[in-house]
Amino acid sequence: MTDTCPVAFFVSDGTGITAETLGSTLLTQFPHQHFERHTVPFLTTADQAHQVAGRIDEVAATGRATVVFSTVVDPGLRGILEASTGFFVDLFGSHIHQLEAALHATANPQPGRAHGLGDALRYQMRMTAVEYAMEHDDGQSVRALERAQLILIAPSRCGKTPTSMYLALQHGIRTANFPLVDEDFEHRSLPGPIAPYLDKCFGLTSQPLRLSQVRQERRPGTVYASLSQCTWELRNAEEMYALNTIPHLNSAFMSVEEISATILQQMQL
Amino acid sequence: MTDTCPVAFFVSDGTGITAETLGSTLLTQFPHQHFERHTVPFLTTADQAHQVAGRIDEVAATGRATVVFSTVVDPGLRGILEASTGFFVDLFGSHIHQLEAALHATANPQPGRAHGLGDALRYQMRMTAVEYAMEHDDGQSVRALERAQLILIAPSRCGKTPTSMYLALQHGIRTANFPLVDEDFEHRSLPGPIAPYLDKCFGLTSQPLRLSQVRQERRPGTVYASLSQCTWELRNAEEMYALNTIPHLNSAFMSVEEISATILQQMQL
């Protein structure tokens, strides 16, 4: 990041999540540029809009490329921002008229609707799922496993916890996760409490060297982190998934978003 | 949801998150319509594109309004989808040329870059933050509190846990959360372990009736869930925030996304 790198503003009348998400996606297509980023959420008054337009003008006046990604709904506020000297990308206005045509309906413009409480039932589901995932992290509880929609299983440090949290928080999936340990591999059987719920199970694996690196960071120099132990656990886990026809994926070089999207698709959740 | 309601497809060469986020935001502007939703992630081959175009055609042939939100990067695949009879909203192509002009740079189109591992350092920060937030949920651990970037405090059930998880997972903020209990209020002082970190503290409050309802769901008929107890705790929490000049917000009617965006802004994280 330098004083001359381009600057991106993400401006929204709500949380700014939508503006950041699409804006950042577009910026990833310019991988050789670094961007200074500013998010401006909850912009709802003309005073605020003028103030932000002023900040944009100041940056643009220094000669730096200045891009404004906006999801502001109100045309008046949009006009104020658009009049600034930044390059205005109207993520909202560009598409809403297309949609009106497609749906033969008139939009009912309301700011900040996307990431508010919105659909109260769906929101409640997500919060309940977070609670469920917290309680059922790493096999801590076997209570109400029949209520799980998904049970992630894997050797330690293959990404069970962040994936469970992501699926619960973003998608409202009641996710339990369970570690596979030496004992399970020696018995060649799934942990007892989850055996009745085979159809809810999804397995994670990793790549031995990668797993060993991750474990070394946590517990350097232990058998637990050794390449031989990681290789052995992963081979056994894969055998167990195959034996029980449990769908699985290798999480070694995937983000939690990619792992989650793959699981949702494969498990048809 | 009926057999005649409009249908939205979210099609992506990556996780589908960007297409869903902006697509859903646009659909919120048509609050009187219900949409049947289909997400198609990881579309990367012409065969897959033809197959999805076929599904879109089938739906559109029934006379239902059919909208396709696409963030597919590859122009060839986009062309296949656009040739279907669905109404094609090109969230990617509509803006990338504008950006090339603004940045005086040529985009380097790469699919699925937005929610992959991407910036490895930033991704690692997020995963570390999730681990930190899990360990420091509900005052479970006071180890390494000096490493926290944020300490959320509140009476039970004001939203500490999901907010911590969201900030950790989405923003990589190492967040601890600590309950405020009767004892703290009687002593009129912050819990001992967090007192040295006053500048990292952010308080949540709620609305007494709302808090009582939330607690009743968990523990019906208890003193803990009674309106009088909730009123007392919230009044004391607010006094404590004021006395210690701790920034705070009322979470009663806000989503976890809104709470998080407000905290990020106020704490300048």
Write the layout of secondary structure elements.
The structure is a homodimer of 269-residue chains.
Chain A: E1 7-11, H1 17-27, E2 36-40, H2 46-61, E3 66-70, H3 75-82, E4 87-90, H4 93-103, H5 120-135, E5 150-154, H6 160-171, E6 175-179, H7 182-187, E7 201-205, H8 208-218, H9 227-243, E8 248-250, H10 256-266
Helix pairs in contact in A: 2-3, 5-6, 6-10, 8-9
Summed up:
Two copies of one chain form a homodimer. Helices cover 44% and strands 14% of the residues of chain A. With 269 residues, the first copy, chain A, is α/β, with parallel strands linked by helices.
CATH class of the largest domain in chain A, named Alpha Beta
Residue runs with pLDDT of under 50 for 5 or more positions of chain A: none
Task: Give the quaternary arrangement of the chains.
Answer: homodimer
Shape of chain A: elongated
The proportion of residues forming helix of chain A, as a percent range, comes to 40-55%
Mean pLDDT of chain A: 93
Cα Rg of chain A: 24 Å
Distance between the termini of chain A: 41 Å
SSE order of chain A, one letter for each helix or strand: EHEHEHEHHEHEHEHHEH
Largest contact between chains? A-B, 72 and 73 residues
Characterization of the model:
The structure is a homodimer of 269-residue chains. Chain A is α/β, with parallel strands linked by helices and 269 residues long. Chain A has 2 domains: 7-103, Rossmann fold (3-Layer(aba) Sandwich); 120-266, Rossmann fold, CATH 3.40.50. Helix content of chain A is 44%, strand content 14%. In chain A, helix 8 crosses helix 9 (227-243). At the A-B interface, helix 1, helix 4, helix 5, helix 6 and helix 10 of A face helix 1, helix 4, helix 5, helix 6 and helix 10 of B. Chains A, B: Belongs to the pyruvate, phosphate/water dikinase regulatory protein family. PSRP subfamily. Chains A, B: One of its GO terms (molecular function) is ATP binding. Chains A, B: Keywords: Kinase, Nucleotide-binding, Serine/threonine-protein kinase, Transferase.
